């Protein structure tokens, strides 16, 4: 993941600050860092990981919200 992100930002001359912001945002961490279809793993591989990551994050976020609610 980090290798593909690094290659993409270098190849496309993308400002790393925007990439780092996306990495800190769980809803964008996979989806907005590089173009999936150009990797050896392909689009489906990264989409599946992205969906798993988002579902885990949403479950944890929901659980934290329940703990903090009255």
Description of the molecule:
- With 70 residues, the chain is mostly helical.
- Helix content is 64%, strand content 0%.
- The protein contains 3 helices and no strands.
- The protein has helices spanning 2-11, 16-24, 43-68.
- It starts with a helix and ends with a helix.
- The model is unreliable at 64-70 (pLDDT under 50).
Provide a brief overview of the structure.
This protein has about 70 residues and is mainly α. The chain has three helices and no strands.
* Ends distance: 39 Å
Structural class: mainly alpha
Mean pLDDT: 75
Strand content: under 5%
Number of strands: 0
Q: How can the largest sheet be summarized? A: none
Rg of Cα set: 14 Å
Helix content: 55-70%
The coarse silhouette is flat
Number of H/I helices: 3
Order of helices and strands: HHH
- Low-confidence stretches are 64-70
Quick tags:
about 70 residues; flat
Layout of helices and strands, plus pairs?
Layout: H1 2-11, H2 16-24, H3 43-68
């Amino acid at each position: 993941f980090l290798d593909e992100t690094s290659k993409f930002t270098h190849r496309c001359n993308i400002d790393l600050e925007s990439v780092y912001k996306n990495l800190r945002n769980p809803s964008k961490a996979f989806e907005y860092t590089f173009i999936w279809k150009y990797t050896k793993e392909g689009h489906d591989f990264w989409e599946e990981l992205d969906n798993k990551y988002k579902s885990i994050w949403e479950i944890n976020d929901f659980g934290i919200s329940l703990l903090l609610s009255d």
